[in-house]
Design brief:
Strand content: 15-25%
Distance between the termini: 84 Å
Shape: globular
Number of helices: 27
CATH topology of the largest domain: Rossmann fold
Mean pLDDT: 90
Largest sheet: 7 strands, parallel
CATH class of the largest domain: Alpha Beta
Strand order of the largest sheet: 3-4-2-5-6-1-7
Helix content: 40-55%
Structural class: alpha/beta
Amino acid sequence: MQHPINILERYWKFTSFKPLQEDIINSVLKGEDTFALLPTGGGKSICFQIPALAKDGICIVISPLVALMKNQVQALQDKGIKAMALTSGISYSQLDTMLDNCIYGNYKFLYLSPERLQQDIVQERIRQMNVNLIAIDEAHCISQWGNDFRPSYKNIVKLREIQPTVNVIALTASATPEVVDDIIKELDFISPKCFKQSFVRSNLAYMVFHEEDKYYKLEAILKKNPAPSIIYVRNRRATLEISSFLESKGYSSIYYHGGLSHAEKDNALESWMQNRKQIMVATNAFGMGIDKPDVKTVIHLNLPESMESYFQEAGRAGRNGNKAFAVILKNNSDELLVKNQFLKVLPSVSFIKTIYRKLSSYFQVSYGEGVDNVFDFNFNTFCKTYKFNTILAYNALLLLDRTSVISLSKQFNQRTLVHFIVSNTALFSYLETHKDSNTIVKSILRTYGGIFEQETKINTNLIADKASVKEEAVFAVLHQLEKAEIITLKNSKTDAQITYLEPREDDKTINRISTIIKQQNTLKEKQVLSILNYINNDDLCKSIQLLSYFGEQDIDACGICSVCIQRKGSKTVDSKVIKQSIIKALENGDLSSRSLLEQLDYSENQINNTIKELLELRIISITKTNTYKLAHI
């Protein structure tokens, strides 16, 4: 058996492990059931990948996220390691072949979702595999108190029945003590070896600022820290708006959200990763599995939905060990907004029943049928058709996804259906007078043989390549042909795919998960309350607040968060000195509070409090343009 450090050096080009990695790997190699709680950036995947490579056989990896599975499989393949993922949309014959390859093809890793474990063919083939390790990624999903509880994760215990002699490693980046205990219990660990790395990030300053003008503060932060940054916002529209605003101010920015096509996402990610763009403005769809060490600032322009998600998103800053900042910008409207965004749109059991029935009508799924059927899905069209509130409907679909009633896969697709409805003679007669369409039409005919007999889905990108034109030219010809009544054309855009994971049974289906729905709504209320407590508590060190939430005790104040800095500033600076500095600055002319903040090396609170005091003493006064001047001038 190869030594772990040799495997690390051979495939990852590192000569030493991160904290706890080697201890975790050795525990796994000894055959122990192992639990690893490592913060974001702690190197969780290496903890199961290296022991799996050190031993004969294949490692089965359970993950809830298709994107994360694909990323890890691609990264392994790039290293010359044989790995595959069983994602949705695979036909039965493909699945059969892929599982055979896992048994006979010297594959080292098989990634699959917990839903796949429900399939008889998957269970049967896993019995025949030489499994050397079972790895459960995002293990908090198995706990009903976890940040992203998925009942399908309870299927994982089936693996222990199928391969009873194989040990298990469970990994997560965020879990409270209650969730940790639940994971160990649910996975039937016997004498587990638990490894928990402290969540302390001594180089990361957690800051919360109250700002009525968030854009102004955002610019000030970015100006002071001209380095790679992530800005998290509430919705897709805001990503474009904030990115455009920053570009107009001379910053290099790009945006990312779940509605972009794969190509657009890849382009945005690469531009940012390669430092062609400094700032990534994104929804929370961005970041999972992203490891960019030199991120200087992570800024939340809107409140995050939970302490778990905030810790993960904030933790993407400063992974190189250099000083970095995780900033939340809040104002008086945020508390109401976060309650409206996350609490008022929690779907009730009755609403989820309605969504499920309408979804089945939308796809024309008959009662008792639909299992394993895959449908292209345009979310906005669906909501408009049935007049649903989009946020409420989206949350309902997410719950149906998490409870394994459906699988919701976010992906942009353009679906183009074409049917030639004239004879060959009529078509070629038309082409004689429209020679500019000749090459494109012939490319379509030579690619899709039955297009005269039936409506056929065509790949417009492929046709464009064959005809050596841009895709826009293909669409122009198609619309021209439709207008001339040569073809029928159906062109639709979808932003998701929905797979039915069980037969349609309407209320009976939802009644089975009603308890989970209610429990998850209660958990969401607690999570939002925790975030509100965090942003409003200006008495206790922000790092202590975060770490206490995850069960750490006896923690020293960090000395660098917004609370600690404020405490230091108020103790060390004499208010008389600040007064004199403001008076001196105003001797040269009227100034706004912003100008004073830019000119003077004091905190915003110190300057604002001193201004109030000077106004009360009538040493300064406010002008008609909301600037300040010395009262005697």
